[in-house]
Structures are given as C-alpha cells and as structure tokens.
Design brief:
This protein has 69 residues and is an all-alpha fold. It has a domain of 35 residues. It is 68% helix and 0% strand. It contains 3 helices and no strands.
C-alpha cells in the first residue's frame, strides 16, 4: 500500500493565498513601472514633450502623483 500523499493537489485556501500573492506582486511591478516611466518623463525637454503632445502642466501633474497611483 502506498502511503505517499499527493502534494500537487491544491486546496481552496492555498489558491486564495497564491492569488493574493500574485495580485500583490502585480501591484508591486505596476508601481515600479509607473515610477520608471515618470522618471523618464521628468527627463524629457520641452521639444520632446511637444513631440509627444504633453504640456508642461500635464507633465508636472503626472510627476506629482505618488508611485502607487
């Protein structure tokens, strides 16, 4: 008789934990990406901003946001 347990079966509780962890990781990665793109936006000069159709006021507004938004 084989008494080994199949550990590949997941329980609803472990699925919830994995989904929670996956969501947390996604939110963290999104925050890092927003921070990176805002940093790059802050490096653009007026000519580059006008090429992108972004006003100086829009840029300031975006740079003032916290990284989680």
């Amino acid at each position: 008789m084989n008494h080994a347990q199949d550990t590949s079966l997941s329980t609803p509780q472990s699925n919830r934990r994995l989904n929670w962890l996956r969501g947390l990781l996604c939110r963290f990665c999104n925050s890092l990406e927003r921070s990176r793109t805002r940093y790059l936006l802050g490096q653009l000069d007026d000519r580059q901003l006008s090429d992108l159709g972004i006003s100086h006021a829009e840029r300031i507004n975006e740079l003032d946001k916290p990284f989680w938004r």
